[in-house]
Design goal:
GO molecular function: beta-glucosidase activity
Keywords: Carbohydrate metabolism, Cellulose degradation, Glycosidase, Hydrolase, Polysaccharide degradation
Structural class: alpha/beta
CATH superfamily: Glycosidases
Strand order of the largest sheet: 5-4-3-2-1-12-11-8-6
Enzyme class: hydrolase
CATH class: Alpha Beta
Catalytic activity: Hydrolysis of terminal, non-reducing beta-D-glucosyl residues with release of beta-D-glucose
Pfam families: Glyco_hydro_1
Length: 441
């Protein structure tokens, strides 16, 4: 793998999210988020773990920015914590929260790294959830006000903007099956939360543009959907699942329409919001981890599909199949489906968890992660050769972090975190990526 394989202007970066690394959940005027509430509920997070300290980035951000500088990346994708800026999800901003992000963004810029700001990475202020959360349209209006606050403060320094990260995960894992905050189990009745997040995206795009923000895009999780059978029912199930996890978010943003399978489950008058949702974007962010297997539903299944494991591939410690060529398949299919409506693509997340420990020699040897990244970058390059306009790639993640309902066991970082001491140890994958992006490979 060599940097010269990619265009000279190709953007190399890493990603994190506020809730997973910041800690300091009760400091600086920060309010309570749905994830604070969820993690404090017995049985919701593995081993009863929480993010009150996490990687302590709130206090150690200068050390972490120094690691970014050492890594040599062009850009750093971070997220703002909504409850740190608006503790109640509305009203006047919290000055201490804004000041923290001022210090962080200034440090990133001083390191000659481009900040990429995500406004929302799942940490809804708890008072907004108490008022209905993403089940009600008013949350989208509150999000637009929040976007204005952040845009007006940071538009002069943030290089690229992403309103919402992976709304599919909030809708499906948070509202449909309850594995993530806020822990509701509404099944298909959760689909209105997708629409309201799409509205929030469009309103935020308008608010950011009004604040003078530059490049604005999105970051949607996408997975190729593979059937385990070839019957008409299997193919129908695959189409339904593809609509639910992929096209429910991409179609309205890029085409101004919803998949027909979703229309019966959307709120009344949803079509009135499509002009807002489909505001023109400067780029489209793709988060890719794995393909999804599916078949026709079995007896007693209330859903129009049955999830199946993708077999025959190596597995990560987070139980994900490692399938690099599926990234090429995904990108080519998006290129063909959306054609001229698809703006330039950035891979805004791609990474894997491995069994990382500090060895007796003081290093963290993670060859599986190096192989994962190299394989996916090769697949990405092949997709570009097929005509897909990809402008950049962000590894998930800079550092080990709180991995939602699985706690701290899955380790995705290029940097190992000893949670007892907060010691940072760059892994072999860190050195590999540094050689690629800074030294050319």
């Amino acid at each position: 793998m060599d940097r010269s394989t990619f265009p000279h202007e190709f953007l190399w970066g890493v990603s994190t999210s506020a809730f997973q690394i910041e800690g300091a959940t009760r400091e600086g005027g920060r309010g309570t988020s749905v994830w604070d509430t969820f993690a404090a509920t017995p049985g919701k997070v593995a081993r009863g773990e929480h993010a009150d300290v996490a990687a302590d980035h709130y206090h150690r951000y200068q050390e972490d920015v120094a690691l970014l500088a050492e890594l040599g990346v062009d850009a750093y994708r971070m997220s703002f914590a909504w409850p740190r800026i608006q503790p109640d999800g509305k009203g006047a901003p919290n000055a201490e929260g804004l000041d923290f992000y001022d210090r962080l963004i200034d440090a990133i810029c001083e390191a000659e790294i481009a900040p990429v700001g995500t406004l929302y990475h799942w940490d809804t202020p708890q008072p907004l959830e108490d008022a209905g959360g993403w089940l009600v349209r008013d949350t989208a209006e509150r999000f637009a006000e929040y976007a204005s606050i952040v845009g007006e403060r940071f538009a002069d320094r943030v290089h690229m903007w992403i309103p919402l990260n992976e709304p599919m995960v909030t809708s499906i894992y948070g509202y449909a099956i309850g594995e993530y905050a806020p822990g509701k189990t509404l099944l298909l009745d959760a689909i209105p939360t997708a629409h309201h997040q799409n509205v929030a995206h469009g309103l935020a795009v308008r608010a950011l543009r009004a604040a003078g923000a530059g490049s604005i895009g999105t970051a949607n999780n996408h997975s190729p959907v593979w059937t385990t059978g070839d019957s008409a029912d299997d193919r129908g199930a695959a189409s339904w699942l593809d609509a639910l996890i992929n096209r429910l978010y991409a179609d309205p943003v890029l085409l101004g329409t919803y998949p027909p399978e979703m229309e019966p489950h959307l709120p009344e008058r949803y079509a009135d919001d499509l002009p807002v949702i489909s505001e023109e974007l400067d780029f489209y962010g793709v988060n890719y981890y794995e393909p999804q297997g599916v078949s026709a539903p079995g007896p007693g299944n209330p859903l129009p599909f049955e999830l199946r494991p993708v077999e025959g591939y190596p597995m990560t410690t987070n139980d994900s199949p490692v399938v690099p060529h599926a990234l090429r398949e995904l990108l080519v299919s998006m290129h063909e489906r959306y054609a001229a409506a698809l703006p330039p693509i950035y891979i805004t997340e791609n990474g894997c968890s491995t069994a990382d420990e500090v060895a007796d020699d003081g290093h963290v040897h993670d060859p599986d992660r190096v192989e994962f990244l190299a394989g996916h970058l090769r697949a990405l390059r092949f997709a570009m050769d097929d005509g897909v306009d990809v402008r950049g790639y962000f590894v998930w993640s800079l550092m080990d972090n709180f991995e939602w309902s699985k706690g701290y066991a899955p380790r995705f970082g290029l940097v190992h975190i000893d949670y007892a001491t907060q010691r940072r140890t760059p892994k072999d994958s860190f050195d590999w990526y540094r050689r690629l992006v800074r030294d050319g490979g």
